Amino acid sequence: ASCVQHRLVVRDASSLQLLQLYTCLDQIQYIEWSSDSLFILCALYKRGIVQVWSLEQPAWHCRIDEGSAGLVASCWSPDGRHILNTTEFHLRITVWSLCTKSVSYIKYPKACQQGVVFTKDGRYMAVAERRDCKDFISIFVCSNWQLLRHFDTETQDLSGIEWAPNGCVLAVWDTCLEYKVLLYSLDGRLLSSFRAYEWPLGVKSIAWSPSSQFLAIGSFDEKVRILNHVTWKKITELDHPATIASKKTIVYKEVEKSPAVDTERLSFPPTRELASSLFSTQSKYDISQVPVSLQYVKPVADRANPKVGVGMLAFSADNCFLATKNDNIPNAVWIWDIRKLKLSVVLEQLCTIQCFQWDPCQPRLAVCTGTSRVYLWSPAGCVVVQVPGEGDFQIVSLSWHSSGDSMVLLSKDNFCVCYLEREEV
């Protein structure tokens, strides 16, 4: 699904054939599929309205108007039959049922980085709250929206919460001014508290491994600390130095090259295909000899939100690899072998890393850098894929299909779908 101004366009993922075209009341700011892909939500934040469309019954539609309360966020519940709307100033979260048309209210939600999270099985929801200048967590049962647990947290200014994939542990982290990660059980017991240091800026990013065995914590000191699920103690610390010296680490460096043009085919005026090949540059990966010095950017200390520390973390689907990005070294992706707890590969790009995401089915990482190329890494090696087409298609974000057979590549104004051939086993 994609939106163009006030129109919602639904296409077939395999052929991009147009399936449905819906018209909303105003410009669409956010869209989201229900978990069973039968409904699609369109949020019109400026009007405080959510419109819901059915794929099975195109004539059916639903409209939710928050009125004077306004709207700043909207999402589906895991069952795909309830919608959670957050009103302006985070006064409350309204839970709307599409089946019974009933309404429930959750008061005092906190405006933070990540304040509402569901367990992977969809049974429970945790909400970060702020009451009387203190942080709280409320855990709800998603089947009937009954409150299961309500407890206060040992945080000064809670920044985010995240469930472990098995739904047994909730990670809570404090403001960047206070390095503190707290781990709570489903019944609200504090299992452990982790604090790496005291005074400098603290936690910047967090990621659970798919098996729930590891919790990776990216910090402003350019390090990743990994906790184990048995004792919740640190098992290793992953540094991101500007110089790669280990001979066991493979460094892939992106290099640009001008394409060779057959002079006998030259004609004036040149054909469109020839012109595009004449003035476009191609890129490929070279393996660099260690030691390798990476481009290091010194952060500006007197500005807000300095580009420093580990801001992006992601585990591969098989738990074997961890991909990280240190904002001080913006052109590099670090890939760690979790089985050996060692740095395996560094991808050194020509431009700043915008986004990376693992294939949901196998250890294959897709990277984009704001250019018209997408980069793929797997244990077998690296490849650069040039997006065909006219004009400058700058990829700023990407998203894998759940099957791992294709991915959506997004630029500022357009999108395209990249299909990958599955290897025969």
Q: How many strands?
A: 38
Number of helices: 1
Major beta sheet summary: 6 strands, mixed
Strand order of the largest sheet: 26-25-31-30-29-28
Please, what is the oligomeric state?
single chain
Distance between the termini: 32 Å
The coarse silhouette is: globular
CATH class of the domain at 244-260 and 267-424: Mainly Beta
Pick out the low-confidence regions: none
InterPro entries: Centrosome-WD_assoc, WD40/YVTN_repeat-like_dom_sf, WD40_repeat_dom_sf, WD40_rpt
Pfam families: WD40 (PF00400)
Organism: Eulacestoma nigropectus
Protein name: WRP73 protein
What are the key terms here?
425 residues, mainly beta, Methylamine Dehydrogenase, Chain H, Lipocalin, 1 helix, 2% helix
Structural summary, described in words:
This is WRP73 protein. The chain has one helix at 272-279; strands at residues 2-4, 7-11, 18-23, 30-33, 39-44, 49-54, 61-65, 73-76, 82-86, 92-97, 103-107, 116-118, 124-131, 134-141, 146-152, 160-163, 169-173, 181-185, 190-194, 203-208, 214-219, 223-228, 234-239, 243-244, 250-257, 282-288, 292-293, 310-315, 321-326, 332-337, 342-348, 355-358, 365-368, 373-378, 381-386, 397-400, 406-410, 415-419. Among the domains are: 1-107, YVTN repeat-like/Quinoprotein amine dehydrogenase (Methylamine Dehydrogenase, Chain H); 244-260 and 267-424, Beta Barrel (Lipocalin). It is mostly beta strands and 425 residues long. The protein has one helix and 38 strands. The strands form ten sheets. It has a six-stranded mixed β-sheet, with no helix packed on it. The longest helix is centred in the middle third of the chain and has 8 residues, at 272-279. The two termini are 32 Å apart.
